[in-house]
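Example 9 (inverse folding). The structure is encoded as follows.
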């Protein structure tokens, strides 16, 4: 069963620990719990939800109030006894910047503590391979966003970077990304951190997109989530049991093996070869492909047979891929997004939704929700910023490991 409306699931809250020297982890547990309940939680409810003692909750919430990260938002009458004071996140207390490097476009955003975009900029990706020059432009855009929003740089937690794979996550390098001529092996994380003055994180664009969805999208309460991303290329971000899957090297999410690989260039090239588009739409660089893609979508929407067949075949490939992945990982929510998805969404959904609904495997034991992201074409940039929020504010169980 599929629907375009997200399922309502019980909010997921990590359990805390009362052991000594766990303050940072427990503070993240409390922050995460408050964030996931926009109507607010009382101290008693926080203790019940997280498993922390009343004293630990009281100490942590006092610190959060003093730091201005949380505030008291009103009273909740339980029907007996004294009304409880509710706590909520102060969105404007902290910010994060995000940059998405795509072969066609560079998107930069500034988001608040809840992942809401407060400023954004976009520019066509330079095609000359001047990596240092491009990084300087990115840094200037980030600085301008912070200044235009009137945000104190001290309130910016850091900078997240989303890039096409492959990446070297540990070193912070992009590694010969397809269709980004001249980038080779480039230390993007450190160069951009130096240029902006902000601590930086680098992740794959598809991973950033799924982090955005679980932080600020329509599926914040989904513990098992598949995000299919369509930009200049395609990929899949995965969350299983509230954990983002990155793989051994941080390069999880490649979909070629599922038959769902895609690029705007090859789609437009196919349309030209079959006569659906004229030679004037020949792709010279990735940004050129967007013009042909939009025209192809228009023709498909008008019922032109060749154009509609091209998009239909793409939908079938993607549908088979997401059904296979959803079955393998027992996923309950499938979300689609990215710049190319925004152009083709209506036509692709008419193909993909029935495939998910009719799959004898996907629907066997539970309903499967199919959605378009609510975060628009900036989803990967929002995801890049959300990487910072997630690292700084979400409970990270790996931080409890010894050694």
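The amino acid assigned to each position is listed next.
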């Amino acid at each position: 069963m599929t629907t375009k409306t997200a399922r309502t699931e019980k909010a997921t809250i990590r359990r805390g620990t009362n052991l000594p020297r766990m303050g940072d982890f427990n503070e993240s547990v409390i922050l995460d719990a408050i964030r996931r309940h926009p109507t607010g939680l009382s101290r008693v409810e926080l203790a019940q939800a997280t498993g922390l003692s009343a004293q630990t909750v009281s100490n942590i919430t006092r610190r959060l109030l003093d730091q201005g990260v949380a505030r008291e938002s009103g009273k909740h009458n339980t029907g007996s006894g004294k009304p409880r004071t509710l706590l909520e996140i102060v969105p404007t207390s902290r910010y994060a910047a995000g940059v998405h490097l795509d072969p066609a476009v560079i998107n930069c955003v500034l988001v608040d503590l809840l992942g809401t975009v407060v400023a954004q900029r976009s520019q066509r990706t330079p095609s000359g391979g001047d990596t240092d020059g491009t990084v300087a432009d990115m840094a200037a855009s980030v600085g301008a966003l912070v200044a235009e929003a009137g945000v104190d740089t001290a309130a910016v937690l850091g900078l997240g970077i989303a890039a096409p794979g492959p990446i070297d996550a540990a070193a912070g390098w992009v590694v010969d990304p397809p269709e980004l001529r001249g980038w080779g092996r480039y230390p993007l994380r450190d160069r951009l951190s130096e240029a902006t003055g902000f601590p930086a994180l680098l992740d794959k664009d598809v991973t950033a997109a799924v982090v955005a969805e679980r932080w600020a999208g329509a599926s914040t309460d989904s513990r098992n989530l598949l995000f299919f991303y369509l930009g200049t290329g395609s990929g899949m971000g995965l969350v299983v049991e509230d954990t983002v899957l990155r793989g051994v090297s941080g390069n999880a999410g490649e979909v070629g093996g599922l038959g769902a690989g895609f690029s705007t260039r090859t789609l437009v090239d196919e349309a030209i070869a079959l006569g659906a588009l004229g030679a004037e739409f020949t792709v010279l660089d990735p940004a050129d492909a967007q013009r042909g893609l939009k025209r192809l979508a228009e023709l498909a929407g008008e019922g032109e047979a060749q154009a509609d067949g091209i998009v239909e075949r793409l939908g079938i490939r993607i549908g088979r891929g997401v059904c296979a992945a959803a079955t393998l990982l027992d996923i309950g929510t499938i979300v689609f997004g990215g710049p190319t998805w925004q152009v083709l969404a209506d036509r692709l959904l008419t193909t993909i939704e029935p495939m998910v609904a009719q799959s004898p495997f996907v629907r066997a034991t539970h309903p499967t929700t199919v959605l378009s992201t609510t975060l628009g074409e900036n989803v990967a940039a929002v995801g890049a910023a959300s990487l910072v929020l997630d690292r700084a504010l979400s409970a990270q169980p790996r931080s409890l490991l010894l050694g």
